[in-house]
Amino acid sequence: MKYPIITICFLFLFVSGQGQNLDSLLGVWNNSKNDDSVRVEAIHTIAWRMAFSNPDSSIALATLELKFTETIEDENMQVSALNTIGVASTLKGSYIDALGAYNQAITVAKKNLNNSDTNKVILAKRGMAQTYINRGILYKNQGDYPNALDNQLKSLSIWEELGVKENVATAYGNIGIIYKYLKEYDKALDFQMKSVDIRDELGDFKGQSSAFSNIGTLYNILKKYDKALEYHMMSLELSQELNDRKGVSTSYGNIGNLYSDIGKYDKAIEFQEISLALAIEMGNKKSIASSYVNLGEYYIKLKNYTKAIEYLNQSLEIATSIGVLKEQKFARERLVNAYREKGNFEKALENYEYYILLRDSMLNENTSKEITRSEIKFEFEKENLKDSLRREQEKKIQMMDQHRKDELKEVEIVQQKNYLFFAILGMMLMLLLVIVFYRNFKQKKRDNIVIVSQKNEVENQKAVIEIKSKEILSSIAYAKRIQNAILPSEDRMKDLLGDYFVLYKPKDIVAGDFYWVEEVNGSILFAAADCTGHGVPGAMVSVVCSNALNRVVHEDKLSNPGNILDKATELVIEQFEISKTETVVNLPEETIKDGMDLALCCIKGRKLSYAGANNPLWIIRDGGLIEVKGTKQPVGNFPYHLPFENHEFDLLKGDTVYVFSDGYVDQFGGGKGKKYKSKAFKELLLSIQSQSMEHQKVSIDTAFENWRGDLEQIDDVCVIGIKI
Questions:
Q1: Cβ(135)–Cβ(85) below 8 Å
Q2: Does residue 89 carry a pLDDT above 70?
Q3: What are the extents of the domains in the chain?
């Protein structure tokens, strides 16, 4: 039986600050002037994020958080810190440390169950529920399925009582996985389907992907291969859409197992190797060990025992280093088959002895001892009974003519020999067990030396990377100060535009979007510009484009938006042609296509002139929206450049003018991962016209963040609104 790759979910109580970067959060923690609750939320977020990429650092930070929360007597955050320690310890294979953290978390949470403060009782119950789920996962990893099921059912009961559907779905999925290991497949499918239904209702696509993967594995066990492949492909497609590399790796591995079951070993190896490559890329040692086991089994079926042994030994080495018994047992079991088929019976026996020890150690300790003792006693008594009967019969035949006394004496001698034989055999077995345990101890000692050496090397590399990272971040922060210098100050904006707002949200520290305001010939010019790219490249382009606008206005004294854009286009192309000559002299055919899209307006009294490079102008008047589209070309290199079209309007008191980049309307989100789009933005602006410009900015920003949710911001955002 192959080792299926199962998706089982950790559950954790997240706190605020998830959108902030680690440097920002670290600054919040280090500032002792901040409120204690704000500081502890900051360090908690850092520790939790690092649990899956750097468990050692996560444990160190969570321990610091725990000591701080004990000082300020915040039991809820103590439970969160202990869960972080437990999850990180589980991921690195330190199961004893993880169990200790979870048990302590349960003890702390129970203190508040009888509290008179209802909110504290609810928080205590949430803490207990999340700990039960995580502790259940730990027991599952150790092969203790009854305890794993008990913890997951306790968690489910609390989440149902609290009405937290998302966590109910997580508990359903985990219970389904445990029933799978207990071979109760109908119950396993029932719980997985319940999980799918809730996640579909909540729009939790990542959770759905995990449930589909687990359902596919169950159908594979039941030999319903068409259904299994259908669910595995559904899981793979969802994981790819969500850019979930762990989910993609899991799906590829499970599809590989399916193809192996139907005898298509070439396809099985192809999919399993993709899963292995992703696991190696992510550094997920448990998944790496599982993929190696599966590849080893495929090659056994192909009778390529040398290749199979190579993969199985790699799996065993990794599984031993992280202390997971189940993967070690699977690898040893298959090595027995591979060595036996290859004719190396000494190696086969050696791996079989290890396999028996691993199998027994995964059973309940007392039960395991009784089973082992009974098996040994039964086998030896059976064999020796045969020998005794045979010897007894021979003695009777040989001594038929001897005296009765001599016959009894001989029987007594035979019995004594049998007792001696049992004693010697028992001593030999004890000696064999001592040798096996001693060899195991020595191997672990050697492994620990290697692990410590590797840990030191990783820590040294980490220190170098952190230094480089700080240098890069310092350079980018300086670049941000340079870019801020090209943006108009708030006082100047207020003097020139009056009642206005600017919503400016760079995707990264620096941005390709910028806003621009100038006064020339008694006219007020303003623009929202979107340069090619974002981050550092976009910021560099924005400096060139902003400089071009300034030169046109101050040197040429132009105030007509169309003429300004025509002249700015010439300057931008000229500047990038110079850059091409200086930096790309070996590529004479290359053309730098960087530039900007923008909406540029000029207001003089109640007259408004507008010209746009791809970006529109919106005017809201008396509950209706007037849209003026820009010329379909950028300010920059373009194959067929035409003069920019200039539009003029008479403004009325109460009109609201909006110009913006495309980052707002192109943002993905809304539960189904779709774009926000212009139609929704228009409806939003029309709905907030009764608000002040300051409140409009807050409403637009809030709508953007609610739409984005947990998805990444895809581009810089710049929106300017002016009330006439």
A1: no
A2: yes
A3: 292-362, 367-441, 487-723
